[in-house]
Design a protein that fits this description.
With 171 residues, the chain is an alpha/beta fold. 30% of the residues lie in helices and 20% in strands.
Length: 171
């Protein structure tokens, strides 16, 4: 576990992985507030190169999923994310942010060999994106519009991903 992550966040992540039923999808009230713009955050690609999330925000809508290889709720979201990516992948940037709790770039790459994720997978080793988006747990999704404004947040495998993306597209 990365010592730079707050202990409360780490505990929430562990609870998310142990949950027997998915969290209810929520809009606002969790994580970063809808209508706000996230602070800048730097993460890494799986080769350890720095990636500034600002290079994606403000160009076109962005969907970020805060994910872990060990998260069963995240696994439950995968079919919805794949379907949404097939429909909206040209119009929306899909970013999978692997949290820095109980996983490494190597373990993530191994997992992706068996189960590829839609979009670009990045690693939040130091928790910068987790803090910027005020992420409460894995399976957290934030959708930003083309101006970089948060239009949706939610957790759980029962989220309506397509409706969230439509918000980001202004539909």
């Amino acid at each position: 576990m990365n010592a730079t992550l707050p202990a409360t966040f780490a505990a929430l992540l562990l609870l998310a992985g142990a949950r027997s039923s998915p969290a209810r999808a929520q809009d606002s009230g969790i994580g970063i507030a809808t209508g706000s713009k996230p602070a800048a955050a730097q993460v890494e690609d799986l080769e350890g190169n720095a990636v500034d999330l600002a290079q994606y925000v403000g160009r076109k809508p962005v969907l970020l999923e805060f994910w872990a290889t060990w998260c069963p709720v995240c696994e439950g979201l995968e079919p919805k994310l794949r379907a949404a990516h097939a429909t909206y992948g040209k119009d929306v940037e899909f970013l999978v942010i692997a949290v820095g709790v109980s996983q490494t770039p190597r373990s993530i790459r191994r997992h992706l060999e068996k189960s590829p994720m839609p979009g670009r997978v990045l690693f939040d080793a130091k928790g910068a994106a987790v803090r910027a988006y005020q992420v409460p747990t894995t399976s957290f999704i934030a959708v930003l519009d083309a101006g970089g404004v948060v239009r949706y947040t939610g957790t759980g495998s029962d989220q309506d991903i397509e409706a969230a993306i439509r918000r980001g597209l202004g539909r």
